[in-house]
Design a protein that fits this description.
two-stranded antiparallel ribbon, mainly alpha, elongated, 3% strand
Length: 202
């Protein structure tokens, strides 16, 4: 179960984004195939996605005042919030538009609608990108104590199942700083070269 508003936001923001992307794709497919069933599926995806987006935005506004973050993350959070509000407002307008027209848009109006919806799709991608930057690049929303514990945990040895080993590890990327000049030390099975040119396998 979620323990912080940030975790609640993470729970609520994926499904609406997926539904809205699905809605736009279905609308375009319905336009090209002229199948009413596909257009109807797009309409209900739009309604469900818009309702979910409102909840996601509200949870995000709540999380903003609770999460721990630095200056860079703060600037990204502000951008993420701004574009999330713009995107949600746009899809609310599109949903009201479809409801008002009872999902029966004339051809010209439907083309305008699809153009606006395509813009909304681009906004969804950008909002997700900003949210990912906040969390995965600048650790916004992760409590300091949790980060410190995670750093300590990463420094402990652990094993993987066969075939699931790390491709790139810090030990593989950076030679041991205690190696002598002209030599490299490493883990078991690696070649150790001495200053006089002799070598052996650890």
């Amino acid at each position: 179960m979620w323990k912080t508003p940030a975790e609640l936001h993470a729970i609520l923001n994926d499904a609406p984004a997926a539904l809205l992307v699905f809605a736009v794709i279905l609308d375009f497919v319905g336009e090209f195939t002229k199948k009413e069933s596909i257009r109807t599926a797009g309409f209900w995806s739009l309604i469900g996605g818009t309702a979910g987006a409102i909840l996601a935005v509200l949870s995000g506004l709540l999380a903003e005042s609770w999460v721990e973050h630095g200056e860079t993350a703060h600037a990204l959070i502000e951008q993420h919030e701004r574009f999330a509000l713009i995107t949600t407002s746009l899809f609310i307008i599109l949903a009201i538009w479809r409801l008002y027209r009872r999902d029966k848009l004339p051809d010209v109006e439907r083309k305008i609608y699809l153009g606006v919806a395509a813009g909304g799709l681009a906004l969804i991608v950008w909002v997700g990108h900003l949210g990912g930057q906040v969390l995965f690049r600048y650790a916004g929303g992760i409590p300091t104590a949790v980060m410190e514990a995670a750093i300590r945990d990463r420094q402990t040895e652990h094993t993987h199942a066969p075939g699931e080993e790390h491709d790139n590890t810090p030990d593989a990327e950076q030679p041991d700083s205690t190696a002598g000049e002209g030599g490299v030390t490493g883990g078991e099975g690696e070649v150790h070269v001495h200053d006089d040119g002799s070598e052996h396998i650890d």
